[in-house]
Design goal:
The complex is a heterodimer of chains A (about 475) and B (about 425). Chain A contains 18 helices and no strands. Chain A has about 475 residues and is an all-alpha fold. Chain A folds into three domains: about 150 residues, no CATH class; about 40 residues, no CATH class; about 230 residues, Orthogonal Bundle (MetI-like fold), CATH 1.10.3720. The longest helix of chain A is centred in the middle third of the chain and has 41 residues. The radius of gyration of chain A is 32 Å and the shape is flat. Chain B has three domains: about 50 residues; about 140 residues, no CATH class; about 220 residues, MetI-like fold. Classes of the chains: A mainly alpha (about 475), B mainly alpha (about 425). Chains A and B meet through helix 6, helix 10, helix 11, helix 12 and helix 13 of A and helix 1, helix 9, helix 10, helix 11 and helix 12 of B.
Chain lengths: ~475, ~425
């Protein structure tokens, strides 16, 4: 229904553009007076009146309709007063399904039959009503705006004002997204911390939310809650895997950047740079698959060959693959930074008889250090926020360990484990995922902020 | 004297050697990175290509046993054919491959060489050819996953019987069928067309391709106009004040927020506050739009900034308003850059998995979705789902899904490069 209606509105919009345009032209020839804008601006003017209010009304109707319908259909049940809110919403879904022809009720009580009929009736009526309201409004406004066209009206100004407001609103989406993120995270997190003390969350050593899940049937014991949500093992696991990733990506990325900017011929560079950047474009789920099915068994086999016990979901495998993923972030950024060190520094160093390596290590790297450190920090924030690799290749059980051959779990893994599939709301288990999300959000933002500050503050200005 | 010279030469040699070593480290690091690109691709391709063909077994079906006169089929409607009881008939047709089997257990093993939908496949054949069915028709039935994998050589035959999924007697049957030339390969069209399934040989990526397309469509419809308008505002019209500074900081920060946080946003706000339907490409598209917006805005702003001021000033000088100068002269010139940014943003969105997991796009969906409001999976989510299943057929299919995903990404990036090459103006 929505699709047809929107198409109709757009059609009206196109038609009214031509109407407005035509009327403006007619006015110009019949009145022999100058209009204030070019005639097609009157077309836009009418078209805006035709489309924008109609779409807004449609949006409002669709967002409030379902609420109203539910109230109306369930009015008899609400009047009885013996149903709770969840029961009512369950009842409504059942009624909806019955209306669709799926039999759900054993006995057909009068109330339910009545409700089903009501639903069918209201659905039909509301659809017709929506059509009439929206199209009628659109038509009326087209007429209004057509008659409004006269030589005092400057439609260009109105159209341009509208565009400007539209553009501004679009740029507000970024703010609204941030506000949305903070609001949704904070809301659930605060509810979580009202049940579990924040200190237990930040400093507790035991993470086992599934225990709370099991015990939910009985009443929740606060002592139990406190023991289940200690996030330190997750922080440690995240840190461990990120550390392994950095151990792989920092040397490789940095040396690659040095080779690219100082040694490679332009031809090699042109080939190698895009190929390495492919690594950044591969979806993380592919790395996850690769880590879980190829690298993890390999790591285990090698480890067992060396007589070590290696978990099949070792932190080493996940961290290693994550390190490979991060290489291009470090190499590209560092490459740019090293290249932007002024040529005079290099030449000065060569003139003193330094070898290339000495120039790089003693002159270029110190000069480029802030940028390089910045790129490391960005890479760390990337590693901490990375989800799919760890979900697929790292462990799921939280265990406090510093052994890279052991299974470790991360913040992101636990968010996914808790929230995947059906979750019951209002349970501290679900809310804990939002608390983890907030932690992640704050940490990555802080890292990015620090990275920017480092680059800004310590970059030396030459020339 | 000679001592000192020698010392000098020694130290010089040392320095030159360390120079050489350093260079080798650098080359080694780069080769390491390049090698992993190669390993990754080889690994995926070598395990995935075999999913694009499938094993079929040729079976002669005596339709005369089902009905007295096969011309009667042409008068039946599809519904009549659906109502025909064909299960034991289909089984008997398969038993005819080995007429001398008597034991029930062996017969069961023989049936298990085929996918469990063999009856359905015969029925479909009947439906689509009902006007000219002969007494006996040769039909290619899908082999079960175990047979498929053995046939492709993905499955070791020399394990102990109780360690493999396929039994000795089945292998005997299978080898006999191969000798009689009844086993063949065909292009795995169902894999591309069908939805997910619990049986590896019947599972397809069709559903998740359509799901991904819907999702990307929603992302395109939402983020392209919003991103470009926002970029135009910020670059061309925004006054330099605290509000616009704040917007800018926000956009840069959003670009660095981990994708899973957007999933939490989708779950907390879009699903639970606005009550949009779970698991749908619509919600997935909205979440991914919010994620790709910063990319599009940043790219569009860069290309707007690259338009020389002379264009704006020229337009203003001949009497255009600011809005006209921007919309008629600056934006068209900056469009290729904006498009490139959008395509790269869409490619990111196409490969994204984590936020979709949180908004429930991990549902097991058999039907190919018809609208963006139907529950569905997407390509990367399909990769995740199948990688959880250990059966060999799913590994092959997961790799094949990745190949398709990478194929789409390569196409999109290629399109971005081509647009940039062809339309970008150099000033």
């Amino acid at each position: 229904m929505g699709f047809i209606l929107i198409s109709l509105i757009i059609l009206i919009g196109i038609a009214s553009y031509f109407l407005g345009n035509l009327r403006a032209k007619n006015l110009r020839t019949s009145n022999q007076k100058n209009l204030k804008s070019l005639s097609h601006y009157y077309g836009y003017y009418v078209a805006l009146w035709a489309v924008v209010p109609a779409l807004l009304i449609l949006l409002m109707i669709t967002s409030f309709k379902s609420l109203f319908i539910e109230q109306y259909v369930l009015s008899d049940f609400i009047a009885l007063g013996s149903y709770t809110e969840t029961e009512l919403s369950l009842l409504f879904t059942q009624i909806e399904n019955t209306a669709l022809g799926i039999k759900l009720f054993d006995e057909n009580t009068i109330l339910i039959n009545g409700a089903v009929n009501k639903l069918n009736y209201i659905n039909k009526t509301s659809e017709n009503l929506t059509y009439v309201t929206v199209l009628g409004l659109s038509g009326l406004l087209v007429l209004y705006s057509l008659f409004n066209i006269n030589n005092k009206l400057n439609s260009r100004k109105i159209v341009e004002k509208f565009l400007l407001v539209l553009y501004f609103t679009c740029s507000l989406v970024a703010i609204m997204t941030t506000v949305g993120i903070i609001f949704s995270l904070l809301y659930e997190t605060l509810r979580f911390f009202s049940q579990v003390p924040i200190t237990d969350f930040l400093f507790g050593l035991n993470w086992s939310p599934q225990r709370v899940f099991v015990r939910e049937a009985g009443d929740l014991d606060t002592r139990d809650l406190a023991n289940a949500f200690g996030a330190v093992p997750l922080f440690a696991g995240t840190f461990l895997i990120a550390l392994i990733a950095m151990c792989v990506s920092v040397p490789v990325g940095l040396l690659t950047a040095i080779y690219m900017s100082e040694y490679a011929s332009p031809k090699v560079r042109d080939w190698a740079k895009p190929i390495i950047e492919i690594l950044a474009g591969i979806p993380t789920v592919v790395y996850g698959f690769f880590a879980a099915l190829t690298v993890a068994p390999l790591v285990r086999d090698i480890g067992q060959g060396a007589g070590l016990t290696v978990s099949s979901e070792s932190a080493l495998a996940a961290g290693f693959v994550m390190g490979i993923m991060i290489i291009p972030f470090i190499s590209s950024l560092s490459d740019d930074v090293i290249k932007s060190v002024p040529q005079s520094l290099r030449e000065g160093s060569y003139a003193m008889g330094a070898t290339k390596r000495e120039t790089i290590v003693k002159v270029l790297l110190p000069a480029a250090l802030p940028g390089i450190v910045g790129s490391f920090l960005l890479a760390v924030s990337r590693a901490i926020g990375e989800t799919m690799i760890v979900v697929m290749a790292a462990g799921l059980n939280a265990k406090l360990t510093a052994n890279p051959l052991d299974a470790a779990t991360t913040i992101t893994t636990q968010i996914v484990v808790i929230l995947i599939g059906d979750q019951e709301f209002d349970s501290p288990k679900t809310q804990s995922a939002f608390a983890l999300g907030l932690t992640l959000f704050v940490v990555t933002l802080a890292l990015n902020f620090i990275a920017l500050q480092v680059v800004k503050k310590y970059t030396e200005r030459y020339d | 004297m000679t001592d000192r010279i020698e010392q000098r030469i020694n130290s010089l040699n040392k320095r030159l050697n360390s120079e050489k070593r350093f260079r080798i480290y650098c080359i080694g690091a780069m080769s390491f990175a390049l090698a992993w690109v190669l390993i990754l691709f080889l690994n995926i391709f070598s395990s995935g290509y075999s999913a694009f063909y499938r094993t079929v077994i040729q079976v002669d079906v005596p339709f005369l046993n089902l009905i007295e006169d096969t011309t009667q089929f042409s008068e039946m409607s599809s519904e009549d054919i659906n109502n025909l009881s064909m299960y034991s008939f289909s089984k008997k047709a398969i038993y005819r491959l080995f007429p001398d089997i008597e034991e029930k257990k062996d017969k069961k093993m023989l049936i298990r060489l085929f996918s469990i939908e063999f009856e359905q496949e015969i029925r479909e054949f009947l439906k689509s050819n009902k006007s000219n069915i002969n007494e006996t028709e040769t039909i290619y039935l899908t082999a079960s996953d175990d047979v498929d994998q053995v046939n492709k050589g993905n499955y070791p035959r020399d394990l102990d019987e109780d360690k493999r999924r396929i039994k000795d007697i089945q292998l005997l049957f299978f080898d006999d069928l191969v000798d009689r030339g009844l086993v063949s390969y065909e292009f795995n069209l169902p894999f591309l067309m069908r939805g997910d399934s619990r049986e590896p040989e019947l599972a397809g990526v069709g559903g998740s391709i359509v799901g991904s397309l819907f999702t990307i469509l929603v992302v395109l419809i939402l983020s392209f106009p919003i991103g470009i308008f926002a970029a135009i505002y910020l670059e061309e019209f925004a006054p330099k004040n605290k509000v616009t500074d704040f917007i800018e900081i926000n956009i840069n920060n959003l670009a660095a927020v981990p994708s899973i946080v957007f999933g939490l946003l989708g779950l907390g706000i879009i699903l639970n506050t606005f009550g949009l339907p779970r698991s749908t490409p619509l919600v997935g598209g909205i979440v991914l739009s919010l994620m790709t917006l910063p990319t599009i805005i940043i790219a569009t702003r860069a290309s707007l900034r690259a338009v020389p001021p002379s264009i704006r000033e020229g337009a203003l000088a001949v009497g255009a308003t600011k809005m006209q100068a921007v919309m008629h002269h600056v934006v068209p010139v900056a469009m290729p850059g904006a498009l490139t940014g959008t395509i790269i943003g869409l490619a990111q969105a196409l490969g994204e998995t984590a936020p979709l997991l949180l908004i429930g796009m991990v549902a097991f969906v058999v039907d190919v979705p018809q609208t963006p409001l139907d529950a569905s999976a997407s390509l990367p989510v399909q990769v995740y789902l199948w990688s959880e299943s250990a059966e060999r057929g799913y590994v092959e299919k997961t790799s094949a899904t990745i190949m398709m995903l990478l194929g789409f990404l390569i196409l999109m990036n290629l399109a971005a490069v081509l647009i940039r090459r062809k339309f970008e103006t150099k000033w």
